[in-house]
Structure prediction request, 290 residues.
Amino acid sequence: MSISSRFAVGIHILTLIELNKDGVSSSEYLADSVNTNPAVIRKIMGMLKKAGLIEVHPGVAGAKSARNITDITLLDVYKAVNVVQDKELFSIHGNPNPECPVGRNIQETILPLFSAAQAAMEKVLDSVTIEDVVKGIHDKDSCTN
Amino acid sequence: MSISSRFAVGIHILTLIELNKDGVSSSEYLADSVNTNPAVIRKIMGMLKKAGLIEVHPGVAGAKSARNITDITLLDVYKAVNVVQDKELFSIHGNPNPECPVGRNIQETILPLFSAAQAAMEKVLDSVTIEDVVKGIHDKDSCTN
DNA sequence: TTTACTTGTAACTTATTTAATTACTTGTAA
DNA sequence: TTACAAGTAATTAAATAAGTTACAAGTAAA
Prediction:
């Protein structure tokens, strides 16, 4: 199991929009960097737009960031692209046997534990901004390899 | 996306083995509580056995815990049932364009961030034992509903 | 008001994964 | 040797992911 790469692609898109802020970031341009189909990019752009992270307009080429990138965290992107539902990172088997003490109580016993684990993960995502990623790209790309 | 319920079922199995420690926990018995097929249980039992969490023997009915349940954490179960690979909770799109600074560096920039988020989640799982779950079941089942 | 270009979207395909099911073998103990 | 359980492989069905194609709808400039 793995969380959809929509999340990583969403981060890629926002990062590239920032680095290309003086140019036009069309779905084709972004798709060329991500190396996928423009329609895939447009679908994800739609999600980012709906979440208020970018501005895009039908008919007019290019996306712009809708917020300062210091205010966009990875958690914002993660939620925008809808890769994991609330409290559903872990799935719990349905219909356990209610005649057994374990079957009867396992779901509500486990759920808060799973939710806590998911929350810890999301908290880390919330501590990183797109600006951090932009800086990371910059650092790596300017090093003396 | 959701992490396979094999994990929740693994926890269910270990918990029930404990509560039924004086009885015989055969795959059929466990399957009846989980409400699934005995073959599914046997497959997961095989993983738990391989990880040294339970003792099962071909031909002889019933599984027993191989360790004290205070020493089995949810992380042990999670790793045993192989639901998430190391550093692969989040998938990253392959083959980004190396001619673009973002495409060229996005993977190694994002990977440590994703790994840190995954690690935080796993740390929470490591802080909960099967004994905690057993107690949780007990508390819920003995309350005055 | 055309023309050229882009976003928005729907339909379809392919591949992968999950979980359940069936059926069989191997092994154990009474 | 009989009965029963674990181990395991093959198959199915459902869900999801990602890519692809095609086209409608919107915008701006010629």
About this structure: The two ends of chain B are 34 Å apart (CA to CA).
